[in-house]
Give the backbone structure.
Amino acid sequence: VQLVESGGGLVQAGGSLRLSCAASGFTFDDYAIGWFRQAPGKERELVARIRSGRDPDYLDSVQGRFTISRDNAKSTVYLQMNDLKPEDTAVYYCNLRVSGIDYWGQGTQVTVSS
């Protein structure tokens, strides 16, 4: 299993970024993929998760600003982040859980300046 994130960067408050997670090594269509984030000194938290055929789940604080989507043909999950806030600053990770085992990407830094 390999998960590779991209798309992070530095943006001003109110700006937008789109993160991508390219996956390989498993049957992509069969599994839920999640985006987590971890800010300095804080625990890692689930931001959004998507399963084929079901409505996505979102962290309350990003509802209405972030949109998760997947392209099964490209084995890629996206996280469109709009109206970014300084509190969204964190390392963002792509996650897959298979049979109780968590797989993570290397993470991509998102920094939102005020």
Q: What stands out?
A: The chain has no helices and eleven strands. The longest strand covers residues 90-98.
